[in-house]
Structure prediction request, 242 residues.
Amino acid sequence: MRLMSVRPIVQGDVPVLREICESVREFGTDVNLLLTDLLDTLEAHRGLGLAAPQIGVPVRAIVMNTSSGPLAFVNPEVVERTGEVSGYESCLSFPDMVLEVKRPERIRLIAQDAAGAPVDVMMNGLEARILCHEVDHLNGVLFMDHLPDEVLFEQLMTLNLAHVSESDDSHTAPETLKGDSGESDLRLAADLFADAAWKAVLAQQILDETGRDFEHSQALNQAIQALERAGSSLEGTFEPSE
Prediction:
């Protein structure tokens, strides 16, 4: 059995993620190893997409997960864009950040495969979004760059969670903790609720895009609302920073 080759993922807004990556001109062992590392790292982190600069290699190569399996593209370029749709995105280089970003609804991508053969594909919906996000990485563009400063700030403050209705008194927050040694644990719990909520929203978007009826869709909606309420309830227990 082949051992996985998992590489560390570059974190934060750092220079390597702001570079315009170099094109791949020679195909062979080095390209194959790079794509293998990218795919192994993506699988290990259960991500949807990953670009070479995210593992510290500033060349034009990306990988992604699709409903039919993983794909790898070398020297990818989005040459056609159709429509526009908003959707939630995260990034393995910014694991604590979730943003709502507008992307094309449909794209045409030209690229090369691991052997250098030409590739020409059309992608819709979530897969188009993933490709646009990853190609952005090759051009030194991060997903927060698509938002005006005031919108970015608002989204970072709210973490894309729906506000709890003031009329819903069945989830009243406990009293504010003062100097409680367990506050850090509660903050961690709130973060985990937020993380679970946006992942459930992303799963819902994927299911919606399949066009198939999902018998548990109502239960999924209820679960998302419950996670959002739980996270908001915990957030209400923290003292404001002075």
Notes: DSSP finds five helices and seven strands in the chain.
